[in-house]
Amino acid sequence: MSHNDVDAVIVGAGIAGLYQLYRLRNAGLSARVFETADGVGGTWYWNRYPGARCDVESMAYSYSFSPELEQEWVWTEKYPTQPEILSYIEHVADRFDLRKDITFSTRVESCVWDDTAGRWTVTTPSEAVTAQFVIMATGCLSHSKAPEIPGADRFRGPIHHTGHWPHEGVDLTGKRLAVIGTGSSGIQSIPIMADQAASTVVFQRTPNFSMPAGNRPLQEGEISDMKGRYPEFRKAQRESAFGVPVEHATQSALEVPAAERTERYQAAWEQGNLVAVLGAYTDTITDAAANDTAAQFVRDKIRETVDDPATAEKLSPRTFPFGTKRPCLDTGYYATFNKPNVDLVDLRETPLVEITENGVRTSEREYEADSIVFATGFDAMTGALNAIDIRGRDGVSLRDKWADGPRTFLGLAVAGFPNLFTITGPSSPSVLSNMIVSIEQHVDWVTDLIEHLRANGLDRVEPTTAAEDEWVEHVRVVGDATLFPTADSWYMGSNVPGKPRVFMAYVGGVGPYREQCDAIAADGYRGFVLGSAA
Ligand code: NA7
């Protein structure tokens, strides 16, 4: 097989793409990876903003496929920083000799299926490659989004998006800084940037729930303890709801006395463990009153931390239930607003109007700035896929098929798009989980399916429309039983004007989802049509 005709093309060299390459290579397939960046890492390549850190603990946010890798790598902190995660991913790429099949600095423009040949043609600006399979490992939060306000091109200073942070860093010393956006990226970076800048104005459209990460160096004892029980811990991760094992809740938040509840939240708060707060009670994510006990706990903390009551109130989330937008872990976020040179502008009171030559203008006034940071997030889940012109059988485009919201079977495959797989695709539990746990499960499942085809002399596979419809409906029903659809979040697509409002995650739990995927495979890939051109 030539360089331009391979068994599989993988799009993206982040955590998913690298593991997919490793698995396909071991299964005896030829594969090429295309990656826009000039290095591996995906999310962790691009998001180099100050304070960027994962909100899943280091020893849990790592690959499990290689026990040797697990034992060799030494994490240094409870929550890993972006540079440490990137070094880890680079180490994995080198250790398993993955780079030789990756073409860097190359964006995939289109993928077109030829039904007669049973192959995809994948086109980049420099070449066209044919492949039997295409595997999208394009990430859920990789297509960044700028705020929808005019004037960015007029501003005479630099504007940086947290999701495209310059590799050389940004020196804010002595600068007047304006930050737009208070999601995870804003909340992690604002305390550090505000320490450096002469003054900082934070433009907040929606306050978010955040709690202290309680980050600290890992002790040698806890590292060796985890390394001694990794197999059992990994099993617990795979069977858990969010890919993070926590004690199973047995009670409603409303059936325990208030003091006991506060004690429980306090313990989770001190652990700096989001899943422990979310999972403390059975109904936190399904019952508004139960949820509000957690929300109120966080709002009380904000009031205790922030000196100025009016600022504390502005920082207090009231428009959506706790956990229905991804809550954040921070280091000193709320206390940052006690500094005399840090100001908060509530965009619900005074909306953004434009970016001017000199700064940011709201309906009330202009704020002069030397530097602007957009911490405005991503066109999540579908953005990176829709950025590629993907055409399946009969030339149907994925963008058109998904015009009213994404439709997939298991979040892994799409009817009408044979031999195409979407790792952590829409309607899988991925974004509601420890991403690496989901990635490994998806990659393993897809690789097993490809091996199954080959072992049976088959060459194509595609979900039926009926199976896809059923899955879409199941995802909706499970989602509707929770509070998630009540929030305007990126899970719902509501952060992107014009995007259909659909809950794009499966909230049935990582463990139960895995069981469903495994049962489908055991049942001869029920819901898929497996075939051969011959
Ligand atoms: P998020 O969580 O989507 O946060 C983006 C923030 O930017 C959020 O506060 C938005 O307000 C705000 N935003 C977006 N567009 C605008 C405009 N036009 N005007 C004003 N403010 C705006 O992205 P992050 O990068 O912080 O985090 C993404 C995920 O990465 C996170 O959930 C973790 O899973 C890791 P809004 O809330 O939409 O009103």
Automatic annotation (TrEMBL):
InterPro entries attached to this UniProt entry: FAD-binding_Monooxygenases (IPR050775), FAD/NAD-bd_sf (IPR036188)
Domain of life: Bacteria
Protein keywords: FAD, Flavoprotein, Monooxygenase, NADP, Oxidoreductase
SUPFAM superfamilies membership: FAD/NAD(P)-binding domain
GO molecular function, one term: oxidoreductase activity, acting on paired donors, with incorporation or reduction of molecular oxygen, NAD(P)H as one donor, and incorporation of one atom of oxygen
Cofactor(s) the protein needs: FAD
Cited Pfam families: Pyr_redox_3
Coiled coil: none
Protein family according to the UniProt entry: Belongs to the FAD-binding monooxygenase family.
UniProt protein name: Cyclohexanone monooxygenase
Species annotation: Pseudonocardia endophytica
